[in-house]
Amino acid sequence: MSTPQILMCPPQFYGIEYEINPWMSTARQADHALANQQWADLRAILEKTGSTIAEVVPVAGLPDLVFTANAALVFGKRAVLAHFKHAQRQGEEVHFRAWLEANGWEVIAPPPNFSFEGAGDALFCGDTLFAGYRMRSDARGHQAIVELLGVRVLPLELVDPYYYHLDTCFCPLAPDEAIYFPAAFDDYGRRVLAENVPHLHEVAEVEARNFACNAVVVGKSVITNTGCPELHSLLRSLDYNPVDTPLSEFVKAGGSAKCLTLRLDGEEAAGWKV
Ligand code: ARG
Predict the structure, then answer these.
(1) Domain boundaries, the chain
(2) Rounded to two decimals, what is the model's pTM?
(3) What atom of ligand 1 comes closest to residue 63's alpha carbon?
């Protein structure tokens, strides 16, 4: 197996400069030194799993550029670039595009007039792309994207503004296994998940609030924010190796471990993984 490759962006210009989700309050700033430390610790843990970390150069005035999960949906050597819903993040698109092009990806623009927030809302579990919509990405945009890529998509409506990206409430672990927070979906979405993921495990609300579902999976290692003990014991019983690391400063922006990363060679759970 080739070395896992992950894209990150150092938090040099990270901060809570606007409010585009219910976690964010400009009155509750991130501690800059602590954010730097937490980010560096996460990076070191990922390196210990054997991953190679690539970096996007941080840009002043783009505080959320650290959340590289939103850059694009990577599919082999093609990448469907994000088009952010909120103007505050649209300035990131050109930087993500430049990095991907410079590093050999064929960048596909998302369909015009739709918002699409990359791997934050589009996660493979096996050969199926699970795609979150309503809060940030548009359902019809997902449809157009899968026509471009020729994959099967299952759209999932997100119903709770605290879980505004799919990666805050659903995390594939393996091609037939995932964790999720049921209350973030409607009945239909819960049924779609139950019928299409053979081994589907629930995360409790207190741990979902600690971003338990926002996990980075590398091989059998599953990295999350602190405060997810129930999930970690479940993972151990399933033969995974959970690791926690404090990410409080990023939670203030509505993000955690997974949001700070973009897997470039395919998620562990993705059927197409190289
Ligand atoms: N403040 C960012 C936003 O609201 C956080 C993004 C988190 N990313 C994620 N993949 N869930 O867009």
Answers:
(1) 5-263
(2) 0.98
(3) 1
